[in-house]
Design brief:
heterodimer; A: 515 residues; alpha/beta; Rossmann fold; 6-stranded mixed beta sheet; 4-stranded mixed beta sheet; extended; B: 514 residues; elongated; disordered C terminus
């Protein structure tokens, strides 16, 4: 790394070393319960080489650390800058591929050429990223600092000489044009002497018969990076005809470690943003909105407008099914949502959405909704009633209670708890009793909680509780709307008309027919 | 090289998607009967007839161009047939003699292409001499240009150049190619280079005389992998040339196909003409296509060509004087020839608009942008929606595709409900279409619709009626006449229900003229 004023740049993910947060165990229930595992898989698929998952398993612990990332993500939201960074990443991938190719080959001229190619791509990638960053309107502390680093790097002596020599070597090779004369069992190599293209001459002769498009008879040859013995022999002759080819050996030897460590790290870490933005662009193209949430370390009056389950939205959009968005808010001392209403009415989806917002918000990511405030939690707990195993039925209630107990023991006022149908494996009376006990604890801790339940009574336990209800279509109560509404629990259609339907009445036709 | 026998300056698009209405038209106007008569048992001619008849054109000049070509064909049938056969032979020989098709080797592709092109050149020479010998018998612009094109494009000098290249491309002296260093220093951009003839020496001789720096390698005779690598390099070198030559042979094949396709339509016309001429009483004439815009329909002795083909010589011809009329409403007796009349209108319009003669003594009508039919359909047991539903859905599809200046033939449409509702739907649809200058022929039993339209005394309308003599006898003539309240369905009822069962009864097709 270069030591200049650019020391300020530490990492594109963390402003300072102390911002690094604990990487959660991917087996934590919250990942499965909130569908966050699906989201992370969606984000990282196709980018396995970067090993990005751990970045998404470590929610940040301070509003400042979150803001550092949010600023960067906002900057990268600009399509121009996004494209620049994506192109840079693609080029760096090519560099790695070329280096690997160079390692694999045995012919000297080939190894050198692939190595040269890798450096050329690297120089191009760094140079154009620097140009693009210089022209970009950056707002983020992170990208501004990286820009300063990069601009110093490309002006540094070592990089400039790398650039210059690489150009020279490339030009040397590009200027070579040779001829091969092929006979039965022998071939001759010499410099090309400008004989005309015979295929073109043949083409001109038959031009008068040309009709539209025809089949392409060009045979595709397998392009292996390796060479046949004949090709190697030809290359050897070409090297004799053009002595400048031998300079390449020294060039390569002197450029063993040309990759800058900071640049390489940036390429790796910036994928966090690129991957996430690419992932959410699929839902925003479908007409849904994501936003940069307000983050707070002390305000628990979180809210969300037009929010939705990001994992579910990806699925629904693929099936061309509309996605229902919801709104919620806490005011003043409100902390807890008790969600009731018909089955399959969107209750669990609401609970997941709430959890996803807090989690993704604390990663420094955009969240699924048009306006959102999230709380910087210390821990996020979930307990969802699993698929019941009939064999283990007797233990289900007990397991549930143990799990809830552990959660409450570990929770602090800064934690978030999402509970979904937790005491279903018992009588209503028991469930009411247990739920009241649990919620009292939650109320006491003053933490943020969503509790999906079939027990209407829970909704009126405390002023901290807000009742949310899954609703149905008033015209046709059998139709679920998937809307979750803030309200008290609800305990629980001849001839001209066909012509209208087909738009073939006079009025319709007059409009439809082209003049 | 182009045939240009259907269009003066472009090819007929053999692979164009059929017009949206094609399938419906084929069904409603029984076009397969027409195509079969034109094909006379030849599947290819059937296909050509179908494609050309269904791609209507609306430019009167273009129609006159085709009519002239067709007149030449009628006058020189034997020569036209022999030109057609040369094209067919060339196409067949390309398939039969040279079956080595799916080969993935430039060397084999190249040698096959050379063989094919040598054969094609022979066939082109035959084509040229056949055309030259008969050039004075052709008077149309289309054939005139065709003969001239053959003479100029296939001059002896050109044929000699082609033959020289075909010999050279077998590379008796080895091949010369140039290359550059690509990624990883692999040879790329292999380009075949021409042998230079400037000093009368072959390039090998020249190399020895000037002695440039060069290096030669001889493979060991048993070095199999070396030979195969060298052969691959050779293939890379001739890849482009093989492609060019194979494509050129496809282009020449394409020319023969174009010629065959375009002539196939005219051969179909010759077949139909011969067929109708044998039934001496049936006249045909070249129609006079009036320009789009004005509404023209002046017709003498128009008959249903499909009925004539199926049934022989006793078809009834109708007259129509409907210049300036955009709406023709046809009412009258069941089985009185209304549908037959309607089809004859549609068929003649289609035949005129592809350049054919028409089945009439004389025929003049304005060209129309497109032809649509909306015929009532027999009820389909599998259909979920009701009949009216289905009819209106079809009407809606027509609305999606229709342009102004089109023509629509309605046959008992919108009758799947009561008279009043059906009439109202028909009235609204017809009014909207007329405002967009669509010409309409409407066969109907909808009394309120027909009489309502009649009482409006619109200038552009004409009312026709299937003739029924007072004694109940049908003449299958359609004459001008105002709508009448009954369609004499009782006649039909009595005929069918009181007739003695026998073969005579079952032969009565719906609206069949007898």
């Amino acid at each position: 790394m270069l030591s200049t004023a650019t020391d300020k740049f530490y990492s594109i993910l963390f402003e300072r070393p102390e911002d690094r947060a604990e990487i959660l165990n991917p087996e934590e229930p919250l990942f499965f319960d909130l569908n966050i595992d699906q989201i992370i898989t969606g984000i990282t698929s196709g980018k396995e080489e970067y090993d990005l998952k751990s970045f998404f398993h470590a929610p940040l612990k301070s509003a400042r650390a979150v803001t550092y990332r949010q600023q960067i993500m906002r900057d990268l939201e600009d399509p121009g800058l996004y494209a620049s960074v994506a192109l840079f990443a693609q080029s760096m991938r090519t560099v790695r591929e070329h280096l690997a190719q160079s390692e694999k080959l045995r012919n000297r001229h080939q190894r050198e050429a692939w190595f040269l190619e890798a450096i050329a791509v690297y120089c191009e990638a760094v140079t154009s990223l620097n140009t693009d960053l210089a022209a970009a309107r950056l707002q983020s502390r992170g990208l501004v600092a990286f820009r300063e680093y990069l601009s110093a790097y490309v002006k540094s002596g070592p990089f400039l000489s790398l650039l210059e020599e690489t150009k020279t070597q490339k030009a040397n090779l590009a200027s070579i044009q040779y001829s091969v004369i092929i006979r039965d069992g022998s071939f001759t190599v010499r410099k090309h002497e400008g004989e005309c293209d015979y295929s073109a001459e043949v083409e001109r002769t038959f031009e008068r018969f040309k009709l539209g498009a025809v089949k392409d008879y060009t045979v595709d040859f397998h392009e292996w990076p390796e060479m046949s013995q004949v090709e190697e022999k030809i290359l050897e002759f070409v090297a004799k005809l053009y002595p400048q080819m031998s300079q390449l050996e020294n060039y390569c030897a002197a450029r063993d470690s040309f990759l800058d460590v900071t640049v390489r790290e940036f390429d790796h870490e910036v994928q966090f943003y690129i991957a996430y933005l690419e992932y959410v662009s699929r839902v925003t193209r479908g007409g849904l909105r994501v936003c940069c949430p307000e983050v707070s370390e002390n305000r628990k009056d979180v809210y969300g407008s037009e929010v939705f389950d990001l994992a579910l939205a990806q699925k629904l959009l693929t099936d061309h099914t509309p996605v229902v968005c919801n709104d919620f808010y806490f005011k003043e001392s409100e902390r807890i949502y008790v969600v009731t209403g018909p089955n399959q009415g969107g209750k669990t989806t609401f609970a997941r959405t709430f959890g996803q917002l807090q989690y993704l918000g604390c990663l420094g990511c955009f969240v699924p909704g048009s306006a959102v405030r999230v709380f910087v939690f210390d821990k996020l707990f979930t307990h969802f009633q699993g698929v019941e195993d009939p064999e283990a039925l007797r233990g289900a209630l007990e397991d549930s209670l143990i799990r809830v107990h552990d959660i409450l023991a570990a929770a602090t006022p800064d934690s978030v708890i999402i509970l979904n149908e937790i005491f279903t494996s018992t009588t209503v009376r028991d469930a009411l009793f247990l739920s009241e006990k649990v919620l009292s604890k939650v109320i006491e801790l003053d933490l943020l909680c969503v509790c999906v339940t079939f027990i209407d009574e829970l909704a009126s336990m405390s002023k901290k509780i807000v009742s949310m209800v899954a609703t149905a279509d008033p015209q046709n109560p059998a139709v679920r709307t998937y809307k979750i509404v803030r309200m008290a629990p609800q305990g629980v259609a001849w001839a001209m008309s066909i012509a209208e339907k087909y738009r073939v009445t006079y009025d319709y036709l007059s409009k439809r027919l082209k003049s | 090289m182009k045939a240009h026998l259907l269009y003066p300056s472009r090819d007929f698009d053999w692979h164009a998607a059929p017009a949206w209405a094609a399938e419906t038209l084929t069904q409603d106007l029984e076009l397969n009967t027409l195509f079969a008569a034109m094909a006379n048992g030849d599947k290819f001619l059937f296909e050509a007839a179908r494609k050309v008849v269904l791609s209507s054109i609306s430019d009167p000049d273009l129609l006159n161009y085709r009519q002239a070509v067709l007149r030449d064909c009628l006058a020189n049938a034997a020569v036209v047939v022999s030109i057609y056969q040369i094209a067919v032979e060339a196409i067949e020989r390309e398939k039969k003699d040279f079956w080595r098709v799916s080969i993935k080797s430039p060397g084999l592709i190249l040698s096959r292409a050379i063989d094919v092109l040598e054969m094609f050149m022979g066939m082109l020479v035959r084509l040229r001499s056949t055309a030259e010998q008969n050039s004075s018998a052709f008077h149309s612009e289309g054939f005139g240009k065709f003969v001239t094109m053959l003479k100029t494009e296939l001059a002896d000098e050109y044929l000699a150049t082609v033959s020289k290249h075909l010999k050279q491309l077998r590379f008796p002296d080895g091949i010369l190619l140039s290359a550059e260093l690509g990624r990883g220093n692999k040879g790329v951009n292999h380009v075949l280079r021409a042998r230079q003839e400037s000093d009368g020496l072959g390039w090998i001789e020249r190399i020895f005389s000037r002695r440039p720096e060069e290096y030669t390698f001889h493979l060991h005779p048993r070095d199999e992998s070396g030979f195969s690598a060298l052969s691959e390099l050779r293939d890379r070198g001739i890849n482009a040339a093989a492609n060019v030559l194979a494509q050129s042979s496809d282009h020449v094949l394409g020319f023969f196909q174009l010629l065959r396709n375009e002539l196939a339509f005219y051969l179909g016309c010759l077949n139909l003409h011969k067929h109708l001429a044998q039934k001496k009483v049936l006249p045909t004439c070249f129609p006079v296509p009036a320009p789009a815009g004005g509404s023209r329909h002046t017709v003498r002795g128009l008959y249903d060509v499909c009925l004539a083909v199926r049934q022989g010589d006793s078809v009834v011809g109708n007259d129509l004087d409907a210049d300036g009329r955009c709406l023709a409403i046809i009412t009258g007796a069941n089985q009185g020839g209304k549908s037959t009349f309607l089809r004859s209108i549609g068929l003649a319009q289609l035949m005129m608009q592809c350049g054919m003669f028409v089945p009439a003594e004389s025929f003049c009508a304005d060209v129309r942008e497109a032809i649509f039919t909306h015929f009532k359909r027999e009820e389909d047991a599998t259909m979920q929606s009701g009949k009216l539903d289905e009819e209106l859905a079809r009407m809606s599809e027509i609305a999606d595709h229709i342009n102004s200046n089109s023509i629509v033939l309605f046959n008992e449409s919108f009758a799947a409900t009561n008279d009043r509702e059906g009439s109202e739907i028909a009235r609204q649809i017809v009014s909207a279409l007329l405002e967009k200058n669509v010409k309409i022929f409407f066969v109907t039993h909808l009394w309120e619709f027909a009489s309502g339209m009649f009482e409006k005394h619109m200038e552009g309308s004409i009312f026709l009626r299937a003739e029924r003599r007072p004694n109940g006898l049908r003449t299958f003539k359609v004459l001008q006449g105002e709508p009448q309240q009954t369609s004499y369905g009782e006649d039909l009822y009595h005929r069918v229900f009181n007739a003695i069962p026998g073969p005579g009864k079952s032969e009565i097709g719906e609206d069949g003229g007898r």
